[in-house]
Inverse folding.
């Protein structure tokens, strides 16, 4: 990351238009407002939240990554210390036993209790909540995120939230005036922002509160058996309903920035009002769009109709997932396997442009790779694209790295797995992606008479090119053959090439493929395709 003394660079950051800079300027303006009021800002706090009833998911990665980019953008503009707090809502009562855990009978017997009060069904941690928290930290550590982990249970019990909770108790009626209009008529009859943790059953209760004692800081509620019980609202004896909890936490921790999904947007004003009641100033917000599955339906953890982090990273590098999260965060995007090749190649293109001598310092700040790599993108270049690698696997029927590297090094002699580790990783991703997604979908067809004549001439043109590795020269000949045979528009010619030769309707530039695969080998492939009577996937 550029140093704080790099003033020209800082000035560029203050004018940059990439969305993390736009959000960071909102935080900077917040700090300046506080300074004008005479407040001393020693640290700016960014927050993300996590519901640990299930495993961390791809949305968790997206939220933490995006918040990290805003934080980094702010650090480029200001020398004020920053911190990212990752909060686990592990005091929530377990409402449903997850499908992917053992010892379901034990879990069922503990329904309603805080996640950190339920024995660990895996038998490895102090509680189920502690297990899920450990998985969250391992997940975040895997990507190198810099964060300060906080357990909601620990904060409730240690008194971190006590002052804010007493503010909520003191303005109980005001909170109810905010919350009741958002509830159905039946729920209104028993609703309370406070959820007592029963000293009898240990459950987090959705209980009716019958009285409050502001002097003692207690509530009296109706227990499950109909009797009354009095507990303090502090010290972990109560927690707040999730909507009031959102705003109370901002106040208690002094959060300056938090982003959340569009599903939270209707509640944003509610969160802000609760935050003020709890004695705080609402943080700056950023609302991101939700992901869609391959059918355009909203992704749901319960439905499992999306893509997991591990699934994405089986077929593409971390940087491709990061780029997918970076681009157009306010637009709904399809999150499915067919997004991976494009994300990989977009990353390669952005990295190439970043290192171009023609790219100015201001343009570098707008480049996603600057944000993805915290201001220090790697120097590695990629002589071939992921799309080309996939087509190369398809054409060569390669099943191992050595064969693919043979083609790559014939095209780019200086490339090798040691000096190009990123490319070597792409080779492995390409082999897996081809086997699992491309090969099963292949559907070859026979050429028309017009296409057969053009393909024959294309093979002859490639013969004449010999060992040519200049993709532009090869592409020129591809265009010439297509024009000579009257393809209008020319994309019909390229479509024919891919459908007849590769069993797919599109691919990378054919000239680039032939230069990589070898003109002579491509000519042989064309003649073999023309000789086939039945075009089935090899």
């Amino acid at each position: 990351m550029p140093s704080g003394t790099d003033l020209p660079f800082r000035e560029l950051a203050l004018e940059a238009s990439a969305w993390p800079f736009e959000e960071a300027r909102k935080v900077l303006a917040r700090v300046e407002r506080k300074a004008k009021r005479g407040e001393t800002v020693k640290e700016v706090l960014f927050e993300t939240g996590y519901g640990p009833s299930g495993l961390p998911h791809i949305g968790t990665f997206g939220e933490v990554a995006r918040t990290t980019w805003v934080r980094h953008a702010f650090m480029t503009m200001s020398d004020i210390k920053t911190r990212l707090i990752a909060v686990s809502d592990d005091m929530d009562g377990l409402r449903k036993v997850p499908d992917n855990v053992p010892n379901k009978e034990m879990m069922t017997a503990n329904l309603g209790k805080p996640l950190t009060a339920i024995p660990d069904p895996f038998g490895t941690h102090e509680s189920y909540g502690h297990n899920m928290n450990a998985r969250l930290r391992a997940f975040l550590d895997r990507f190198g995120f810099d964060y300060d982990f906080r357990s909601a249970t620990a904060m409730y019990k240690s008194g971190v939230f006590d002052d804010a909770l007493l503010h909520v108790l003191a303005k109980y009626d005001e909170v109810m005036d905010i919350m009741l209009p958002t509830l159905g008529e039946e729920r209104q009859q028993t609703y309370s922002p406070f959820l007592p943790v029963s000293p009898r059953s240990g459950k987090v209760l959705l209980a009716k509160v019958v009285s409050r004692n502001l002097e003692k800081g207690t509530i009296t509620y109706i227990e499950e058996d109909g009797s009354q019980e009095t507990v303090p609202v502090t010290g972990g004896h109560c927690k707040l309903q999730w909507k009031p909890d959102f705003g109370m936490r901002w106040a208690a921790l002094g959060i300056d920035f938090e982003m959340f999904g569009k599903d939270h947007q209707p509640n944003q004003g509610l969160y802000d009002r609760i935050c003020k009641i709890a004695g705080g100033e609402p943080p700056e917000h950023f609302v991101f769009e939700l992901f869609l599955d391959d059918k355009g339906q909203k992704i749901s953890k319960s439905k499992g109709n999306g893509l997991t982090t591990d699934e994405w990273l089986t077929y593409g590098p971390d940087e491709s997932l990061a780029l997918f999260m970076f681009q157009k965060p306010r637009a709904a995007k399809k999150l499915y396997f067919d997004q991976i090749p494009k994300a990989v190649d977009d990353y390669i293109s952005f990295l190439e442009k970043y290192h171009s001598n023609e790219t100015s310092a201001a343009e570098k700040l707008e480049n996603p790779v600057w944000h993805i790599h915290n201001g220090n993108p790697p120097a590695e270049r990629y002589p071939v694209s992921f799309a080309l690698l996939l087509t190369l696997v398809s054409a060569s029927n390669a099943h191992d790295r050595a064969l693919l590297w043979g083609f790559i090094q014939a095209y780019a002699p200086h490339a090798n797995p040691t000096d190009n580790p990123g490319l070597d990783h792409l080779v492995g991703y390409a082999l897996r992606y081809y086997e699992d997604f491309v090969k099963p979908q292949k559907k070859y067809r026979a050429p028309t008479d017009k296409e057969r004549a053009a393909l024959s001439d294309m093979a002859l043109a490639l013969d004449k090119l010999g060992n040519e590795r200049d993709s532009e020269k090869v592409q020129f000949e591809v265009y010439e053959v297509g024009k000579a045979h009257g393809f209008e528009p020319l994309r019909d010619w390229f479509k024919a090439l891919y459908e007849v030769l590769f069993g797919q309707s599109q691919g990378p530039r054919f000239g680039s493929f032939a230069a990589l695969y070898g003109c002579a080998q491509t000519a042989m492939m064309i003649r073999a395709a023309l000789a086939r009577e039945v075009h089935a996937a090899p």
